[in-house]
Amino acid sequence: MEIDTQLIPIPPDPKILSKKNVVVIDVLRATTVIVYALSQGAMEIIPVASVEEAKERAKTFSQEVTLLGGERNSQKIEGFDLGNSPTEYSEERIKGKRIILTTTNGTRAFYLVSAGNQIFIGSFLNIGAVAMRCVSLDRDLLIFLSGNKGSFSLEDTVCAGMLIDLILKNGEKPVNLTDASYDALFLYQRFEENLIGAFHFSSHGKELFELGGGGDLIFCAQTNITEVVPLFKDGVIRIF
Fold it and tell me: Would the pTM of this model clear 0.90, i.e. be above it?
């Protein structure tokens, strides 16, 4: 297995990507929300790029089982049912519901890697389960980081490094790392004992904290609280 890490969210070559599995990571907060919502019984999540597309897609489904969720500039979108804080996605609120989700960074990422063989959703919440899935499949892997408005994201890279570390520790076959994957691994080792510290150094983490999102930082830094491994397929994210 070779593990590559896309440190900046630019579209990979589809021909190369089709031979690889992909893990998409947006720790603050899209993939954390997705993993948590599905662990709480959400039926499915449909990621879309824009607010307008989210509203149009919602019209094609029963309103009784469909919710709009997401953010722009880290704030809940006016008229939406849910924002982008994982704490909003409780079982009582979203069990059995379809969520159409649009965020600044994360939901766009899925379409940049749609040519991948299998596309998984990763976060600190399910990092161990994702690692074991990657080990069991034993296929070349791209870890795709959603970044922060097109730029490098410290917290996403630390999460990627943790995923790499777990694959190395749990796999029995040789694993080759690209330079970018070594970067992620070394950065994770710097914050291994203080994951939330990476959030407070990162530009996005600082922004959320200043907006009163300190609770979200604590929530998103939790590790291995669920074993769900969501899969993005045909425009929809489910637990298959």
Answer: yes
